Amino acid sequence: MTANSDEREAKNRQIVQRGFDAWRAGTGSVFDLLADDAKWAIVGSSPVSKVFSSKQEFLDEVVTPFNARLVRRFIPTVRAIYADGDMVIVLWDGEGTGRDGQPYRNSYAWFLQMRDGRIVSAIAFFDTTEFNDFWTRTSP
Hints:
Elements: H1 3-25, E1 34-42, E2 51-52, H2 55-68, E3 70-84, E4 87-98, E5 103-115, E6 118-126, H3 128-137
Parallel strand pairs: 1-6
Antiparallel strand pairs: 1-2, 3-4, 4-5, 5-6
């Protein structure tokens, strides 16, 4: 590895950590880092599992309806962040309260491809059984 590569990895890791910190504090979101043309893939078998071809499509079809199902905002807790080249991997847990008063908790692994401080591609893994239960028992 070169010093430039190490610096790029450290910078990408810091950018993503700041995004999660802002999300946790309620002052922003990691989604603020998405490039307009970012691709976001949700793996598994959930109502939202597919590849989204833009930031706006992902926000409209997943993030906005997800947040509308909550009465207490979703708060992330990062367990670990790893960087390898332009890829940042985040292992994290999230917790919120649905409109039905029931908690929603899940664990996530996100693989975020970075370019110039922006997320250009993401692959998201999580417990789709937990997600499906939350998505179907609550409505926006």
